[in-house]
Amino acid sequence: MDPIYTTNAEDQAKAAELRARLANSGASESETNDDGRWKEIKSVSIDDGAHKYVLVCATEPFPRETGAEALTRNFVTSKRGAAYHRNAAEPLVYTLEQHGFRNIQILGGGRIYCNEDEKKISIFGYSYSFGQAKHSVSKSVIESDERYSDYNVSWSNEGY
C-alpha cells in the first residue's frame, strides 16, 4: 500500500527552501544587539488539541555568562491550523532569526496532542518534509518547561 502523503510538491519545495536558507544562515554576535529579549523566548509553544509539530535547535546569540560559550537550545512548537510542518516551523524560525539565534535547524517533526484539561501530551508520527523528530528529545524539552511539569508526557514512533 502506498503511503498517504499529507503534503504536496509545492510544500516540499518550500520546505526545501527553508532548510537551504537555514543551512546558509548564522548571524555573528557583532550583527546582533544584546538587548536580552532573546532570553525570554520559550522553549515550548504547544497549542491545545492535535497538531503538527517540529523540533528545532538553535545557538543562542550570546553567552549567558562572561567567558562562556553560547548555548544550543532545543525548541518544540506546534501550531493550530498548520496545514504542513513548515507552517508550524516558520513562526518560531522567524522569531529566532529576529533575535539573533544562529545555526537554526529543523531537526524533524511529527504530531503532538495536548489535552490541557487532562494535563496529557502525546508525541508521535513524522514529517514528510523534515523527517521524524527524535520524540524522546521533544519529551525532555517539554518536561523541562515548568508550565508542563505536572503533565503526563508520552511519545511513540508509531502513527502519522
Automatic annotation (TrEMBL):
Family: Belongs to the janus family.
Pfam families found in the cross-reference section: Ocnus (PF05005)
Protein name: 14 kDa phosphohistidine phosphatase
GO biological process: cell differentiation; sex differentiation
Function of the protein: JanA and janB regulate somatic sex differentiation.
Active site annotation, chain numbering: H85 (proton acceptor)
Native source organism of the sequence: Leptocylindrus danicus
Annotated residues for binding of substrate: K52
Signal peptide (residue range): none
Entry-linked Gene3D superfamilies: Janus/Ocnus
Taxonomic lineage from the root: Eukaryota, Sar, Stramenopiles, Ochrophyta, Bacillariophyta
Molecular function via GO: protein histidine phosphatase activity
UniProt entry keywords in alphabetical sequence: Differentiation, Sexual differentiation
GO cellular component, one term: cytosol
PANTHER family, per the entry: BCDNA.GH02250-RELATED (PTHR12258:SF5), JANUS-A/JANUS-B (PTHR12258)
